[in-house]
Structure formats: C-alpha cells, structure tokens
Amino acid sequence: MKQRSFKQYFITGLLVWLPMGITVWVLMWLVGMLDAIFLAVLHAADTLIPGVHASAEYLRGIPGLGVAIVAVVIFATGVFVANMFGQWWLRKWHGLMNRIPVVRSIYTSVKQVADTLFSGSGNAFSKALLVQYPRQGSWTIAFLTGSPGGEVAKHLGQPMVSVYVPTTPNPTSGFFLMMPKADVIELEMSVDDALKYIISMGVVAPPATAAPKPAAAAPVSSNPV
Predict the structure, then answer these.
(1) Which of 55, 198, 214, 224 is the least buried, fewest Cβ under 10 Å from its Cβ?
(2) Within 13 Å and on the Cβ side, how many CA atoms surround 149?
(3) In sequence order, what E strands does the chain have?
(4) Would you say residue 225 has pLDDT above 60?
(5) What is the dihedral of CA 168, 169, 174, 177, to 10 degrees?
(6) Going by C-beta distance under 8 Å and a sequence separation of 6 or more, which residues neighbour residue 42?
(7) Per-residue pLDDT tens digits for 77-116
(8) DSSP state, residue 183
(9) 179-192, pLDDT tens digit by residue?
(10) pTM higher than 0.90 for the full model?
(11) Rounded to an integer, what distance in angstroms lies between the CA atom of residue 175 and that of residue 163?
(12) Is the peptide bond before 169 cis (omega within 30 degrees of 0)?
C-alpha cells in the first residue's frame, strides 16, 4: 500500500513539473537563439568598428538583452515599411536579393512560405486532415497547405491537395505530399488541437465537436477540403 502511494505521489509530482520544465526549456532555447543573433551582430560591429569593443563586452554580459533588442528591431522594421518610403526601400532590398544567384533561391522560397503563413491570406495550415499514410489502412493527421500549381498540376490529371504530414513528437519536421482531394478527410478539430494530438503521440485526444465520421477502408470522397 505504501509502495503504491509512493508511486502515485511521484507520478503526480512528475505531471506537475514535466510540462513546466519543458516549457522553460523551450523558452530558454528561444532566448538563447535571439541572444546568439544579437551577439553575432555585436561581433560584426566590433570587427568593423574596433572602438566599440568595450561597449560590446559590457552588453554581452546582460542576459536577455538580445531578446529585447531583436524584438524592438523587428517592431521598428514593421513600422518603417508601413509607409511609402519604407516600401520603396523594401522593393530595393528584394531586388538586390533576387540578383544574387545562390541567395535568390533560398530567399525567395523562404519569403513565399513566410508570406503564406503569416499574411493571413490563403489556406495554409488552416485545416486539419485525416489521411492514409504511409500505406493504405494506416491513418495519420496532416495539415492542408494548398493545392499543386504550375507544371506539377498539369501532370496530375485530377483534383489534388498539398498536405504536410508532421512527425511526432516534433512537428517541425515532416513530409510534404500531394494527394487526391477525394482521399483526404477534413476534420472538425482545430489546428491547435491537432498539434496537441500529434505532440502527445495520440495521448491527448481532442474533444469531439461533431458526430464521428464512419470509418471506411476506402477513402471517403464526400468530405471535400
């Protein structure tokens, strides 16, 4: 009886500290990344202007200063490009990046993804889907990212959707797939609930918001995306 109580108390305490510890670890990683960016800028400034060495050494010792300065710079940049003068400089910057051979491919790809995810337009990651992957009969959660276009769409021959299948418990890596539109099932759960479901490896199931769709061996085509 005492052994069982000790085990229950230990698990209860673990359930309290584990989410807190992981949250703190993620926040510390984010702060460390922003501080690293700030320190890299200070190092570059110290290399170009030797006279700022003393100030750079002092600023390096202030924890969290990089986070605050990077946040201020991002906010100030947003304010700057919100007017005609800033828009003109932004077009010049885009033109410069598009003229550099290797940088052009990386910059344009990242810019298009960022514009899609953060601009509020489009349907990227707006819907959680149920798809059969990696084989027929095995189901997993995916996210709608759009639909194939350009030359790719010409070779597909049927309505298709582009989906992102995240890995678990780390959803930042995954697989990009183009699947027939009739083979995916649109879920009622929100994207946040779907992410919780993936990160928890299926332990934290989202609440049912509607009557469950009947399971079927073949894809259900009556659930359009």
Answers:
(1) 214
(2) 3
(3) 128-132, 139-146, 160-166, 174-180, 185-186
(4) no
(5) 40
(6) 56, 59, 60
(7) 888 888 888 888 888 888 888 888 878 888 877 776 666 6
(8) G
(9) 999 999 999 888 88
(10) no
(11) 8
(12) yes
Q: Which residues contact 64 (CB under 8 A, 6 or more apart)?
A: 31, 35
Q: Is the peptide bond before 134 cis (omega within 30 degrees of 0)?
A: yes
Residue appearing with tokens 């190092």: 43
Q: What's residue 72's pLDDT?
A: 84
Output the CA–CA distances (angstroms, integers) from residue 90 to 82, 86, 184, in the order listed: 10, 6, 40
Gyration radius of the chain over CA positions: 24
Residue 55 main-chain phi, psi, to 5 deg? -65, -35
Q: Is 83 helix (H, G, I), strand (E, B) or coil?
A: coil
Residues 110-169 have pLDDT tens digits of 776 666 666 555 556 778 999 999 988 999 999 998 888 888 888 888 899 999 998 887
Residue 32 neighbours by CB under 8 Å, 6+ apart: none
- For residues 158 and 180, the answer to whether their CB atoms sit within 8 Å is yes
pLDDT for res 124: 65
User: From residue 123, how far is each of 33, 182, 193, 200 by CA, in Å?
Assistant: 29, 18, 17, 25
Number of CB atoms found within 10 A of residue 141's CB: 23
Report the half-sphere exposure of 34 (CA within 13 A, side-chain side).
Answer: 17
Q: Measured in Å, how far apart are the chain's first and last C-alpha atoms?
A: 54
Amino acid identity of residue 108, one-letter, is T
